[in-house]
Design brief:
The complex is a heterotrimer of chains A (314), B (594) and C (305). By secondary structure, chain A is mainly α. Chain A has 13 helices and no strands. The chains are: A mainly alpha (314), B alpha+beta (594), C mainly alpha (305).
């Protein structure tokens, strides 16, 4: 509903046309400095994810053993000639491995969230909208999914599918994405359901119903855009979670296989050296934190920008 | 007659002592030298003990890696259990701290018959912690329980040479088990008897020269039937021990407290009033606990911290690396079916399993720089290995390296292998399946080897990390071409390092290896009375296994440990695994701190 | 309402049944068994152990035996800790884990919610940036890294707290902080997000325009309504905390149940695994009921038919 403001005498009134929900949103986003920063960082991340390995000074698996032996055993510190960020105990360059890891971390993050949304949103929406029996059934179903041990399920999945084409795809990572996604969609579905439960009762929905708008349209055109805020937050927060989940899995042998390294597995490897060579943990942790920050800022900005209360405002 | 036997025994002792002494630079641990602890000993050398005045408070704080799964002597196998059991029980014979051979413990003397099939032990006067006398009948009970199929004891096999044990051990796998009465009847035929309270006789079905060494294990200690069959026998208030300490407190998953056993019969009575064992599954926290002064000794020091520890002004002086009876070795798939007969199914076509080709294995061995491997992946600790048996044991051949690091020779061997296998170049070989278990720090080692072979031959490797349970199943089934492996001695005898590991169809034979010659030599050695001849047989077997390049032997282990200067009286042995000096808690003394 | 709650609680039973069946089947589908050791057991011994524990029977029989025992409160023998029953093990560790979980939960709520509110109120100013940075760090830092850093600084270097164990209040501090790190960050983020949602709702503007004082607008309307998505997160958070973060218990050497969980999977300790999964499932299902009841309480517009 447009608000009409009476111009003051002498004030120039500029006619403003609404560019539609998404156009307005983009405009608002541009003005949010932190969101723009986040967007830029995400773009950089995607760029590194695609082109990073080509920029790396060393192949990610190459062990510069001469340098390690010369340095007297143990990882080399940052600033060693040829290795700006240092190496691990086998002489593998950390910068190169971070760049290769960017590719992996970006794919884990995005694909897992996609799986989560594809499953969680419809289920949550159905449960929240239709309530009653369907809601009950779906929520009990999510209880079961939520309650049983993810790790066990993922181990089984990996063992059963390991030798198949699905299991081998993308160094075994595709299977991991699907597995993590399959065990993590419940939170999003509950969020969506919660949002729908409360929004369902609001006035404008009642009004739309009174006019005779179909349920489906109400959901897609009104409820989802309005309820999408916490979902966006959930997605942005889920991304580092997926990255860390992948680290835990590679710790027990499922996930990216060595010598490839994702940021999470780099943290796991470097954890043991935290007292003596903290750079092995520090740099991957910074990478993850930067990725999280970028998705967070962007996500916040998107949520602000998509707020329908601001429709028509620039 | 008696004199002859005694001389024979003395000869045995002398020869073993000579063999041990000549093998490695192992100074006798526990030697008391004046002054406080000396400079840190280098790899493979035992530390000198700390000396000083006795402190007022005699409480030792140490740490084990987790909750012992059981404290039942017959059933224990986990090193956390063993560390505690060594304080609570002592067997008939025990290891000598310096030479590791069997010396009197509960038995004050023994006699071995001419044909070496009958051992007669005379027990000394001794009591349990509850005051009851330790009688030979308790030993009979304990040994019967050990081989009883209903106990399902993992280490029952060490009694395999006892008369009648064979049938019982085989019975264990029967499903369903025969009736109790039948089993009891069989147990009565077991070759152990106690004619009186102080005499224990063992009848062997075949001479087993390593049997006395096997008896130093924790599994054959005397056990009171009335104790172990009572409910909650293993809880602190009820536990009956026969060793220098007793179980004062067991807060599960948290800590164990031991206090001296007032009825301990040994010559060295404990000076300590309490041993506190905390349980730290996380090595980084155990390290922090040592640094914060919460524990007095640490074994092992996490390898990632070793550099830092050595460089530290305080800890550097407290750090030592005495030898351990362990080995890191990586197994090749030699192609024999796990049953011991015939070829593994997936290796019927040698091209599918290149490691079944001897020259291929030799080439891979020659391409590995073991010194660099040790430096990069073991923080430069340990001793480079070329054969299986650890230095210090009779039968070891520590200087025997049939295939040295030599890239030129490696290329030649590989060329021959490729020809024999029918490949044009190594790059044509499908990636070798290299298995290892994750979460245990093996990734760098596997990566090192994979790169070495790729650089040398262009050979590709699939590094397959799996969860432990899955990995073990695959390895035993011969699913890998190469697998990470390791072994630690159960008892200090060559037989324990080869039998079952390199014998056809052996239970721990993870390299699908079978060479009847080796089996023959081991059987011979088992009945060879003459120590020198016996040693020669083991050496020969050891060398054949290395010549066959059955496995890639990499490094013999050392115990990287930290000991505070105020811990005195330590008797460190290569068999220690969780606590330095864990075989002789009774000699440990807390000294005044400076 | 009472009927609704009762019905929901009764639904837990079929949920637990489904979880138990699925877990049981999954457990036995993974290769390897409870007796796998680096040093192989002799085949005969392994066969004997399998027979003793009934592992040689068909699966449905094993499950039936387990279910009957479970219904009578007998959780079975532990496969790995052979002298103890699962009942013993769980009893030992249960209250410790619960205590740790509750303390961490309290800390995350006490710190997380105000932090989120602060951020929302100071939107796009320094409180917001501070909270965002802190929560980013909290989420990006794995709990074991946080744990070891706390130990190094506060135990080894400062000596204020012990490195591990659970023998008194001074042992509680570091593990609680380490365990609460991630939930604090998550709760702060959700609180902030939902507070910001709410500030824009019509009824807030209505209240503002009516001249209601800012403070009471904040306290009554905003907070209450902002708590809805937060309550969604509290449920799983509490379940996660209570059933034990095995990492924290492992790193700090705390004798709770969480330590056992991953070990049970790795060592295939079937009874322990079943028992812990059922406990976890029950906690989650129960807490979901609590969450839904809280929803209804907080948002009177929600009606449950």
């Amino acid at each position: 509903m447009a608000t009409v403001t009476r111009p003051l005498p002498g004030q120039v009134v500029r006619e403003h046309r609404s560019a539609g929900l998404w156009g307005d949103a983009w405009g608002r986003l541009r003005k949010n400095r932190l969101a723009v920063l986040g967007l830029i960082m995400v773009i950089i991340l995607l760029f590194l994810g695609i082109f990073g390995p080509f920029l790396a000074p060393w192949p990610y698996a190459y062990q510069d053993l001469k340098a390690v032996v010369a340095g007297g055993s143990g990882p080399l510190p940052p600033g060693t000639p040829g290795h700006p960020l240092g190496t691990d105990q086998l002489g593998r360059d950390l910068l190169s491995r971070l760049l290769d890891g960017a590719r992996i971390s970006v794919s884990v993050a995005l694909v897992v969230q996609l799986v989560i949304l594809l499953i969680g949103v419809p289920i949550g929406a159905l449960a929240g909208w239709f309530s009653g029996r369907l809601d009950n059934l779906l929520m009990r179903f999510t209880d079961i999914i939520y309650a049983f041990p993810d790790l066990l399920f993922i181990i089984i999945l990996s063992v059963v599918f390991r030798e198949t084409a699905f299991g081998r795809a993308y160094d075994g990572l595709l299977m991991i994405f699907v597995a993590i996604g399959l065990t993590s969609w419940v939170t999003v579905s509950r969020l969506v359901r919660g949002q729908l439960l409360s929004l369902k009762e609001t006035e404008f929905v009642e009004a739309a119903r009174a006019i005779g708008v179909q349920d489906r349209k109400i959901i897609t055109k009104h409820l989802l855009p309005n309820g999408v805020g916490p979902i966006i937050v959930a997605v942005t927060l889920g991304i580092p979670g997926a990255i860390l989940a992948e680290a835990t899995l590679s710790y027990i042998g499922i996930g990216v296989q060595p010598p490839r390294a994702s940021w999470g597995s780099l943290i796991n490897d470097g954890y043991k050296y935290i007292r003596s060579e903290p750079h092995l943990v520090l740099f991957p942790a910074i990478a993850i934190a930067a990725a999280l920050a970028s998705f967070t800022f962007l996500g916040d900005g998107l949520r602000d920008a998509l707020d329908p209360k601001l429709k028509g405002k620039q | 007659m008696a004199q002859k036997r005694l001389l024979g025994l003395v000869a045995v002792v002398a020869i073993i002592a000579a063999a041990c002494g000549g093998a490695t630079a192992t100074t006798a641990p526990g030697s008391q030298e004046p002054g406080t602890s000396g400079p840190p000993a280098s790899g493979g050398v035992a530390p000198t003990a700390n000396t000083g005045d006795l402190a007022e408070e005699q409480i030792l704080n140490v740490d084990i890696a987790g909750e012992p799964p059981t404290l039942d002597p017959n059933k224990a196998q986990d090193s956390n259990s063993l560390t505690v059991l060594r304080a609570l029980h002592r067997p008939l014979v025990y290891i000598d701290p310096a030479t590791l051979e069997p010396v009197p413990a509960l038995a004050e003397s023994w006699e071995i018959s001419e044909d070496a099939k009958t051992l007669t032990f005379t027990l000394r006067d001794a009591q349990y912690s509850n005051g009851d006398p330790i009688v030979a009948g308790d030993l009979v009970y304990s040994w019967k329980r050990l081989v009883d199929p209903r106990t399902a004891a993992p280490y029952s096999y060490v009694m395999a040479e006892v008369e009648g044990a064979g049938d019982l051990l085989a019975l264990a796998g029967a499903d369903p088990l025969p009736a109790d009465a039948e089993i009891d009847a069989l147990l009565d035929t077991l070759g152990v008897e106690a004619p009186d309270d102080k005499t224990f006789i063992v009848h062997l079905s075949t001479p087993a020269t390593y049997f006395l060494a096997a008896m130093t294990l924790w599994v054959g200690v005397p056990i009171q039937e009335s104790w172990i069959t009572s409910p909650d026998a293993f809880e602190a208030g009820n536990y009956v021990s026969s060793g220098p300490f007793q179980l004062q407190t067991w807060n599960h998953n948290s800590e164990i407290v031991l206090t001296p056993n007032p009825n301990w019969y040994g010559e060295t009575k404990p000076t300590l009033t309490e041993i506190h064992m905390s349980m730290s599954p996380e090595p980084a926290q155990a390290m922090a606990a040592y640094e914060a002064g919460e524990i007095d000794m640490l074994l092992p020091v996490p390898s990632e911290d070793i550099e830092r520890v050595k460089a530290d002004p305080v800890m550097g002086a407290e750090y030592t690396e005495p030898p351990a009876l362990s080995i890191t070795y990586y197994t090749f798939n030699n192609g024999t079916d796990p049953s011991g007969e015939g070829t593994l199914e997936r290796c019927q076509d040698p091209k599918a399993c290149p490691t079944t080709n001897k020259n291929f294995r030799i080439a891979l061995t020659q391409a590995v720089d073991k010194e660099a491997f040790k430096l990069a992946t073991f923080a430069n600790t340990g001793i480079v290995a070329g054969t299986m048996i650890m230095p210090g044991l009779p039968g070891a051949t520590p200087d025997y390296f049939p295939y040295q690091y030599d890239l030129a020779a490696a290329q030649e061997s590989m060329a021959t292998a490729l020809q024999e296998l029918g490949y044009a170049s190594a790059a044509d070989i499908p990636p070798l399946r290299f298995g290892f278990n994750t979460g245990a720090g093996h990734e760098p080692r596997v990566a090192f080897l994979a790169q070495a072979w790729e650089e040398a031959f262009g050979l590709k490797t699939d590094q397959i990390g799996s969860e432990f349970g899955v990995f073990l199943t695959q390895r035993t089934a011969g699913e890998y071409d190469l697998a990470r492996n390791g072994w630690g001695a159960d008892y200090p005898h060559a037989n324990n390092q080869l039998n079952g590991l390199f014998t056809c169809g052996g239970g721990n034979n993870d390299d699908q290896y079978c060479n009847p010659q080796v089996d023959e030599l081991l059987t011979q050695a088992a009945s060879e009375q003459d120590q020198a001849a016996q040693q020669a047989l083991y050496e020969q077997a050891n060398k054949i296994i290395a010549d066959d390049a059955a496995a890639l032997f990499l490094r013999w282990g050392v115990n990287s440990q930290l000991v505070r200067p105020y811990v005195g009286g330590l008797q460190v042995t290569p068999m220690d695994s969780q606590v330095p000096g864990e075989h002789f808690y009774e000699s440990i003394q807390m000294l005044v701190r400076q | 309402m009472i009927r609704y709650v009762t019905r929901r609680l009764l639904w837990i039973i079929p949920v637990l049944f489904a979880v138990s069946v699925i877990t049981f089947l999954l457990m036995h589908a993974v290769p390897g068994g409870p007796w796998a050791r680096e040093k192989q057991l002799p085949d005969a011994v392994e066969a004997r152990l399998n027979a003793q524990y009934g592992l040689d029977q068909p699966l449905y029989e094993q499950y039936a035996r387990w279910a009957v025992a479970f219904a009578t409160g007998d959780l079975g023998p532990s496969y790995r800790y052979q002298d103890r029953t699962v009942n013993d093990i769980v009893a030992d560790g249960f209250w410790t884990t619960v205590q740790l979980g509750i303390m961490a939960f309290a800390l995350s709520v006490i710190v997380g919610i105000p932090l989120g509110i602060l951020a929302a109120l100071g939107h796009n100013r320094w409180p917001d940036y501070l909270t965002t940075s802190v929560s980013i760090l909290g989420i990006a830092t794995p709990s074991f890294i946080l744990a070891i850093m706390l130990i190094v600084v506060f135990s080894v270097q400062l000596g204020w707290f012990p490195t591990g164990g659970w023998k008194g209040p001074e042992y509680w501090v570091l593990p609680t902080i380490a365990l609460a790190g991630f939930p604090i960050a998550v709760i702060a983020r959700y609180t902030r997000a939902s507070m910001l949602e709410v500030t824009r709702k019509d009824y807030i503007r209505t209240a503002h325009s009516k001249g209601v004082r800012n403070q009471s607008v904040v306290s009554r309307h905003m907070i209450r309504n902002a708590l809805i998505p937060v309550v969604t997160i509290l449920g799983p958070t509490l379940a996660f905390l209570v059933t034990g973060s095995f990492i924290i218990e492992r790193v700090f050497n705390i004798p709770g149940m969480g330590q056992f969980y991953l070990n049970a999977i790795a060592t295939r300790d079937y009874s322990l695994l079943m028992a812990m999964t059922m406990l976890y499932a029950f906690a989650v299902a129960f807490l979901n009921v609590v969450v839904d009841v809280l929803y209804a309480y907080i948002d009177p517009r929600i009606r449950y038919s």
